[in-house]
Amino acid sequence: MYTRALNEWKEFVRIPSVSSGSAHRSHLFDCADWLVKHLQKMGMQRVVQLTTGVAPPVVYAEELIDTAKPTLLIYGHYDVQPPDPLNEWETPPFAPTVRGDYLYGRGVSDDKGQLFLHLKAVESLMAEHRLPINIKCLFEGEEEIGSQHLSNVLGTHQALFKADCAVVSDMRMLDLHQPALTYGLRGNIHAELLVTRHGTDLHSGVYGGIASNPIHGLAHIIAKLHTSKGQIALPSFYDDVFKISAAERTYMRKNGPSNAQLRQEIQMADGIGEECYTAYERLTIRPSLTVTGISGGYEGEGSKGVIPRQARAKLNFRLVPHQDSNQVAQSLSRYVAQQCPSGLRVEVSVTAQSNAYQVNPDERVFQAASSACQSVFGRKPVLLRSGGSIPIVSTLAGQLRLPVVMMGFASPFDNLHAPNERFYIPNFFRGVETSKQFIRNLEFMHHAYH
């Protein structure tokens, strides 16, 4: 199984299914087709592509053995982040390469590898004629751009996705040998600021000093987004931030990543943020606002004497429980309008958003996952909050009313969203065994409570 699974995994990764922008759009459909063929080859009873407009299809598959048995919904995404900057990759991003115990390539970890290990688990149980529960699969191609059309698909086909619980593997372990279960995610807002001046580009020699400059205006607005103490400056922004218990903070400090580990991950001697919180707490239980891109004016080689008519910035908020993404987006629009210098205009567009999510670790399905991790890794998993956002999790919990197990197998040093993304191959196969044991545990827990 080892060699075949590794080769299939590589084949999956070779498809450049980048969802951001239009350059790789056709490859998203190629990737969906590849998944369909692979699921059919596995022998799944039903495999279909669910479409909505021009969006990449949602790939759905099912293996239903007995309506009296519990049903597990496996979620994953086949789209990946852009590979830029290409010159920092040691090997081409879509030519998956084994170096040592790692497979390198864009999407090997986020999320093709973690998606694929569940398929190998199901395939193994089916081949052994030991699949004890019903399986449904939901694989989408827009997660990296906010799952823009998935809610419509789920609403249209809600009966199709009926299940007892869901598993999502799109997160990390504490380290290579310490498994972890994620019980909290931050929410998310992707927004763009467009600052414009009436008219066209102007000569910077003829009009410099009297014409408003959108780049200057944008820089002014960005500088006003945070206070001198590093807090987000939007009025009343922190009013709804949830208050964590002292007991949970103690657990997080004892079991979560240390300040030193996180500094090592970002390759900096020190980080930023609110001083009264650890780095791990700043990443998970406190909100953040990051400028992820900025552009304006002449960006080619050499110089050009121009005052541009517009400038853009991309922002990313991460929100915590009890904060409402709609309210924050509205507050952002009002605030930047107030900060915009005279003679300029600012527009805000929100491209994706989701609210924070947290699950009760005492849920029975959570305990089934914990037992599976311990049986394979030989260690009880630690419980982690994540600073990341996975919109589908709150969608599955809210729209389909499913308990969601967040069980990741990536490591903190897998370079997710960065050049030289990688996955520790031994943990891929441990992940396969953990998924198999989790599926078995779900049957046992079902028997215990019925």
UniProtKB/TrEMBL annotation:
UniProt keyword Hydrolase, yes or no: yes
GO molecular function terms attached to this record: metal ion binding; peptidase activity
Superkingdom of the organism of origin: Bacteria
Keywords on record: Hydrolase, Metal-binding, Protease
InterPro entries, per the entry: Bact_exopeptidase_dim_dom, Cyt/Met_Dipeptidase, Peptidase_M20, Peptidase_M20_dimer
Pfam families referenced in this protein's UniProt entry, alphabetically: M20_dimer, Peptidase_M20
Keyword 4Fe-4S listed: no
GO biological process, one term: proteolysis
Domain Peptidase M20 dimerisation: start-end pairs: 185-342
Protein name: Dipeptidase
